[in-house]
Design goal:
5 helices; 3-stranded parallel β-sheet; 3-stranded mixed β-sheet; alpha/beta; Rossmann fold; about 150 residues; disordered N terminus
Length: about 150
């Protein structure tokens, strides 16, 4: 007999072993474990081929989309194979538009690259405003995926 939602196993969020600044999630809502992931920095135990979140600080996002585009495109191709994947940026869109990042990239180039990710790979880019907000968003994303697709 299939399990009901109330019998669903607890949520375990996987943090990729290469993630250098991992989020701390609310332990009352989800456990966290470190394990190598095929794509992204975060996923859900049992759904690691279905859901993924790639975390970026604003400086890392700008550097990646401007200077390391070919390597990042390979990562985006992996993310695009997931049912639900996104890029979470620990800054707001106004931070991009007002060039509040290191480097000489033009804000329009950064925005254009973000839009390219969305349009070319169908992977949304969420500008979450801050690291704390990005952590909360990532946790909520993982919990929602677990509720929808775990059995």
């Amino acid at each position: 007999m299939p399990s009901s939602r109330s019998e669903r196993r607890p949520t375990t969020i996987i943090i990729d072993t290469r993630e250098q600044e991992p989020y701390s999630f609310d332990p009352l809502l989800a456990a966290a474990v470190r394990r190598a992931l095929p794509a992204g920095d975060y996923s859900v135990d049992g759904l690691d081929g279905i859901v993924a979140v790639e975390r970026k600080s604003l400086d890392d996002f700008v550097s990646t989309v401007i200077h390391n585009r070919s390597r990042f495109r390979a990562e985006l191709q992996k993310l695009a194979e997931h049912r639900a994947a996104c890029v979470v940026v620990e800054a707001g869109l106004m931070d991009v538009l007002q060039a509040r990042f290191r480097g000489r990239a033009h804000p329009n180039a950064v925005l254009g690259n973000a839009l390219s990710i969305v349009l070319d790979f169908r992977v949304p880019v969420f500008f979450c405003g801050s690291r704390q907000a990005a952590c909360r968003f990532t946790q909520a994303y993982m919990l929602a995926a677990h509720t929808r697709w775990s059995v």
